[in-house]
């Protein structure tokens, strides 16, 4: 490792570490941190303990646009999937927010959750229709949809890093307002916070974080749900601590799952999206049974 990082001589180990392991690890850190942050933001803004980035239609929108890119435009490369997936996540989240904001009360946790469910079901039906029509599209789509760090190089990470960085800054900036919003909209407004502006910034941050992560690695479910609950049990509900801790824990969980997937299925590997669900679900159930989780 030391030789490959600081004094490479072109050996096989140097090539593997510098061209495969380092880009994969860097992308895992970015995606894990982004999903952990996005999950904490979704749960905070919707005040829904079951909230994750998929609640706003991010995964469904990304999946639909990737299928359209494969079926209509013949996209076959991961770099092509990235931009279609990010565009789909952006369109879906904006649509959900626009639908949830209609009416007198504006965007509320209930209207956002209902709008997200409706949009996700609609896009999921459209995606299923296309992949049932064309088997070649299904074959190309399956590899992206499983959620994986395999096959992604430094160029993929370079395309999404700025979106994740901007989303992380917006997320950390919204932490004080989220603390006030958790006390109720009336209290937040009396403390000088604009509820509409806070939610708009939050939705933008969630879209950038979850959209970029999903575009790079496919939909990795469950991570955005479990990480904020685990972190909240130790940090409490203060979002000034919860958000950065969720980013760190998300990166650790995703990298750990990636290592486990490579070890248990040698000489092949088990995709990280599958490992996260297999490890996370029993742990989350045990956590709920053994201790009372802090409220959202």
In short:
By secondary structure, the protein is an all-alpha fold. The protein has helices at 2-6, 12-46, 58-73, 78-101, 109-133, 135-145, 154-173, 175-181, 185-190, 195-217, 223-235, 239-264, 272-290. The radius of gyration is 19 Å and the shape is globular.
Can you describe what's shown?
- The chain is mainly α.
- The chain has a single domain, classed as ABC transporter involved in vitamin B12 uptake, BtuC (Orthogonal Bundle).
- Helix content is 78%, strand content 0%.
- It contains 13 helices and no strands.
- α2 runs parallel beside α7 and α12 packs across α13.
- The longest helix is centred in the N-terminal third of the chain and has 35 residues.
- The model has no long low-confidence stretch (mean pLDDT 86).
In whole angstroms, how far apart are the ends?
A: 42 Å
Question: Remind me, CATH topology?
Answer: ABC transporter involved in vitamin B12 uptake, BtuC
Approximate strand percentage = under 5%
Spell out the CATH superfamily. Answer: ABC transporter involved in vitamin B12 uptake, BtuC
The biggest sheet, with number of strands, parallel, antiparallel or mixed sense and barrel status, is: none
Report the structural category. Answer: mainly alpha
Record field, number of beta strands: 0
Low-confidence stretches: none
Treating each run of at least 4 consecutive H or I residues as one helix, how many helices? 13
- Mean of all residue-level pLDDT scores: 86
Q: Summarize the helix and strand pattern as letters.
A: HHHHHHHHHHHHH
**Which value, in Å, is the CA radius of gyration?**
19 Å
Q: What global shape is seen?
A: globular
- The second-level CATH architecture is Orthogonal Bundle
- The helical percent reads over 70%
């Amino acid at each position: 490792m030391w030789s490959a990082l600081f004094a490479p001589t072109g050996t096989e180990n140097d090539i593997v570490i510098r061209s495969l392991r380092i880009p994969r690890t860097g992308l895992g850190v970015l995606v894990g941190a982004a999903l952990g942050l996005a999950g904490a933001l979704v749960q905070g803004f919707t005040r829904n303990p079951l909230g994750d980035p998929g609640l706003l239609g991010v995964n469904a929108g990304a999946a639909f646009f990737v299928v359209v890119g494969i079926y209509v435009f013949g996209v076959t490369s991961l770099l092509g999937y990235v931009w279609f997936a990010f565009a789909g996540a952006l369109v879906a989240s904006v649509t959900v927010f626009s639908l949830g904001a209609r009416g007198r009360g504006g965007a509320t946790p209930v209207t956002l959750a209902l709008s997200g469910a409706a949009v996700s079901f609609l896009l999921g039906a459209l995606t299923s229709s296309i992949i049932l029509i064309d088997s070649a599209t299904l074959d190309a789509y399956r590899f992206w949809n499983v959620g994986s760090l395999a096959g992604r190089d430094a160029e993929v990470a370079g395309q999404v890093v700025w979106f994740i960085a901007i989303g992380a800054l917006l997320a950390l900036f919204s932490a004080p307002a989220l603390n006030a919003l958790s006390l109720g909209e009336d209290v937040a407004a009396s403390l000088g916070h604009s509820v509409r502006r806070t939610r708009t910034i939050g939705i933008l941050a969630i879209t950038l974080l979850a959209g970029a992560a999903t575009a790079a690695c496919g939909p990795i479910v469950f991570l955005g749900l479990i990480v904020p609950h685990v972190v909240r049990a130790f940090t409490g509900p203060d979002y000034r601590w919860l958000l950065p801790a969720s980013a760190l824990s998300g990166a650790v969980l995703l990298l750990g799952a990636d290592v486990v997937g490579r070890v248990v299925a040698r000489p092949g590997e088990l995709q990280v999206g599958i490992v996260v669900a297999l490890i996370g679900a029993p742990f989350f159930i045990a956590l709920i049974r053994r201790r009372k989780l802090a409220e959202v």
